[in-house]
Amino acid sequence: MSRWRLAPLIVVSVILVIFAYGVYRSLTGTQVIRIASGTPGGGFYEVGQRLEQVLNNDLHEQQYEAPVVFTRDETHGPRENLEHLAERKAQLGLVTEGLTVRPKEPGGADIRGLVKLSSAMLHVVVSDRVSRQVRKPVTQFTDVIRLASALGRPLRIYTGSPRSGTHAVVELLLTYYKIVNRQDLKWEIIERGSAADTAMKFVDGEIDVVCLLVSIDAPAVVTMSHHGQLVSLDPAAIDAIHTLRPALIAATIPAGVYNRDFPKTPITTLGANTILVANAEISNRLAYRIVRAIGIHWQELQSGMLLPEDFRKAQVKESDYFSLHPGAVAYYKGDNLPLWPWFEDKVRLMVEHRDVVLSIGGGIPTLYALLYAWYQRRRVRQLMNQIAALKEQGTIERSTIENIRMHALTLLAQGKLNRDSYATLNEFIDANLQRAALQASQRASAGGKPSEEKKEQGA
Questions:
Q1: pLDDT tens digits for 88-113?
Q2: CATH superfamily of 7-118+275-352
Q3: Whole-structure pTM value
Q4: Which of 174, 284, 359, 452 has the most CB atoms at less than 10 Å from its CB?
Q5: CB 277 within 8 A of CB 84
């Protein structure tokens, strides 16, 4: 079989080897996915725990999929979560819509939305001790602003870490009330500590007021629910902040949601959606599987958490604060599971450079034809060189040349020469045979003349 006939088989074999390598890469090697959650006692921490458990149980080992392990990282809140995702320290994270702005640093990972989870609401809890000391009920956030003057000492207030959503909302409120210099408030602002630790200090009387942007029924708020009261925000402040940050909306904490006295009446406050986001290290296929797993286990996630009853209400829209991950889009639209990442990257690269790919693909047959024609000319040239060598040696014989012609005919029958190449060689052979016959007749004529001269001399 001709080596050139094997060329297509070799190309197909190479493609199959590449395909097998892609399958091997896609099915082996455990992928570790880190979930940036929150501090113990906060709503993000609890949601992160549930997600870690559900995703590990569902996605750790599946047929025709590489193993995936999910781990949870404790952080100081959504802003730090977003930083971890941008810096690729984590791949999944819980963020608050409207408060976490994606970093614009060069090289930062792209961040996309996956699923809406719980709604976080600002809880401002005032200690019962403080209410007794000022001898009047504290029901509004504006009362909290004036508490230090009534107490005659600095108000010890927890506003969350500087990278938390709680801290961002409190800053927006103080800006609304034109409080530029925080020292004018006579607050002793506490920014360190987890939600759980802060709640215990509140119970022990070490903190007077706690602000937490968490979902209803967060463990830290449950701990404080027997030792304080929730206060409302001014509707005008809520409207102004909503205008500035549309993702922050008016929300209501229902009366008696924690216990019959906490709160005694509905509390108007600010709320925002908690969203599970992913960075570019989460492939379209894995994002699809994560959203699918959350949808399948939605009832399990709802246990003990205030999540939407219907998973369809948790779907992130493409026009929301965070653009939707392509893998999540595929799941919500009911499309098939995306390709394995290794293949998807290659397909995406080919689509992005499809003009080049089409040019190369269209040029392969032409290149093959040119190379094959060159190889055939090389065969013809070798046969011509054999004839030329015989000619230089002066041993050219018709039988030898006819053997070369027969060999070329055999190559033609085997498909190793095309008709044009054979015709070219045939013409060359005929020309050489004619030239050899002419030279032989000339030699014969030259040899006959001396004999005739000798005969004339004898006569």
A1: 899 999 988 877 655 556 667 788 88
A2: Periplasmic binding protein-like II (3.40.190.10)
A3: 0.64
A4: 284
A5: no
**DSSP structure class, residue 218:** -
Residue 317 C-alpha from the chain's centroid: 18
Specify the residue for token string 């987890």: 194
Q: Which amino acid is at 406?
A: M
CA distance 95 to 293: 20
Out of 3.40.190.10, 3.40.50.2300, 3.40.50.300, 3.90.400.10, the CATH code matching 120-271 is 3.40.190.10
pLDDT reported for residue 360: 66
Taking phi over 0 as left and psi of -120 to 50 as alpha, with beta for the rest, 304 belongs to left
**Tens digit of each residue's pLDDT (9 = 90 or more) over 232-290:** 999 999 999 999 888 899 999 999 999 999 999 999 999 988 889 999 888 888 899 99
For 91, residues 6+ apart whose C-beta sits below 8 A from its C-beta are 33, 34, 35, 85, 278, 279, 281, 282
Give the Cα separation of 282 and 11 in Å (integer): 33
Instruction: Give the model confidence (pLDDT) of 138-189 as tens digits.
Output: 999 999 998 888 888 999 999 988 878 888 899 999 999 998 787 788 899 9
Q: From CA 332, how far away is CA 335, in angstroms rounded? A: 8
For 300, half-sphere exposure in the C-beta direction (CA atoms, 13 angstrom radius) is 14
Nearest C-alpha neighbor of 277 from the set 63, 41, 81: 81
Q: Compute, in degrees rounded to 10, the torsion defined by CA atoms 82, 85, 86, 87.
A: 120
User: Which 3 state secondary structure label does DSSP give 424?
Assistant: helix
pLDDT band at 376 (very low <50, low <70, confident <90, very high): confident
Is the separation of the CB atoms in 160 and 77 below 8 Å? yes
Environment class of 283 (CB within 10 Å of its CB; exposed 0-12, middle 13-18, buried 19+): buried
Structure-token pair, residue 30: 């455990």
pLDDT tops 50 at residue 319: no
- Judge contact between 82 and 92, C-beta under 8 A: no
**Cα radius of gyration rounded to whole Å, the chain:** 42
